[in-house]
User: Which sequence fits this backbone?
């Protein structure tokens, strides 16, 4: 998971519903404690529930408190992008909003 440069990629594959997020939570917690940069790969995420999005928001807050850089690798899966749009986390059309940056990788 971690390499010698202090960077970690946490891969999320398949459905991300209440049952599956426990494993991701544990991997994120371990990664935030051992690396300076954590990237979450959501390109293979299937069904996406709000609990997964909440987990990522909590991880983002925890990372900031620890001085760890947390980013989502791009592109996101279509299912996750759809869940983010339906939840209002990213805009459905038009230019990116400031609030979209974490989710869609806008610098």
Assistant:
């Amino acid at each position: 998971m971690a390499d010698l440069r202090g960077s970690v990629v946490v891969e999320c594959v398949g459905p991300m519903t209440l049952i599956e997020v426990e494993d991701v939570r544990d991997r994120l917690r371990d990664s935030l404690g051992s690396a300076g940069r954590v990237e979450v790969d959501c390109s293979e995420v299937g069904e996406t529930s709000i609990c997964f999005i909440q987990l990522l928001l909590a991880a983002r807050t925890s990372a900031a408190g620890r001085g760890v850089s947390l980013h989502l690798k791009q592109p996101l899966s279509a299912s996750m992008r759809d869940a983010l749009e339906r939840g209002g986390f990213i805009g459905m059309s038009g230019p990116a909003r400031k609030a979209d940056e974490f989710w869609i990788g806008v610098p």
Summary: The radius of gyration is 13 Å. The helical segments are 21-34, 50-66, 78-86, 101-104. The chain has one domain: 7-103. The chain has a mean pLDDT of 89.
